[in-house]
Amino acid sequence: MPTETFFNLPEEKRSRLLDVLLDEFSQNDYDNVSIARITERAGIAKGSFYQYFADKKDCYLYLMQLAIEEKTNFLRQPPPEPPVDTFAHLRWLVDAGMQFQFHNPRLAHIAYKALFDDVPLPEETLTMIRRGGYAYFRDLVQSGIIDGTFDPQIDVDTAAFVLNAVFTELGQYLMQRFDISPSQLLARGADALNQDEIRQIILQVITILETGLRKK
Q: Cα–Cα distance between 85 and 166 in angstroms, integer?
């Protein structure tokens, strides 16, 4: 993770460096990311970069953490109309998740690479993604039990694990089902997929989950 020196930078300088980092890591494979190119574009000395980050790996993991936090915060926003229950909220999340990539295209591309392309740091990266999703779904399950949507007899941790596993693997399943390659998805984003068909499949997944989780 970045050093305190990075976080203590003036807002304008830190934002400019972050903007360059997002460009570099979203437009290039991990092995082709260039520290020299980053420092040149950001207008900082190469030595200054290493005052902010230990190395390229450290920088990459920071961007992954940022992507997870930004998406979680995006999904935690209240729906325009309060959902009638937690499953209605899950259905709303389908559209909200799609909208995230339009609001944060570079972060979304970095996350795509981590999930669907050659992952440069598979153990650390996937652990971060799963941990972030698990915490989010655990809160969702607890909310579902409180509002009477979820069966109060279910184990919160197990239900969160199931939801997290399903939604973590869902993107890979959709790509295989519609024969979309990682390079096509990275290049075209949501345009590479039929949004209506995707939405229908995800809604079917939620219906299957609802059968097992809803309070009888």
A: 20
DSSP state of 29: -
| pLDDT tens string 20-51 | 999 999 888 888 899 999 999 999 999 999 99
pLDDT band at 187 (very low <50, low <70, confident <90, very high): low
Cα–Cα separations (whole angstroms), residue 105 to 24, 84, 119? 13, 31, 19
Q: Report whether 112 contacts 175 (CB < 8 A).
A: no
Residues 168 and 95 sit within 8 Å (Cβ to Cβ): no
- Among 44, 35, 60, which Cα is nearest to 5's? 44
Which amino acid appears at position 206 of this protein?
I
DSSP 104-145: SHHHHHHHHHHHHS--SSHHHHHHHHHHHHHHHHHHHHHHHH
Question: How does pLDDT run across 64-90, given as a tens digit for each residue?
Answer: 888 888 888 887 777 777 777 888 888
Q: Could you give the maximum distance between any two Cα atoms of the chain, in Å?
A: 63
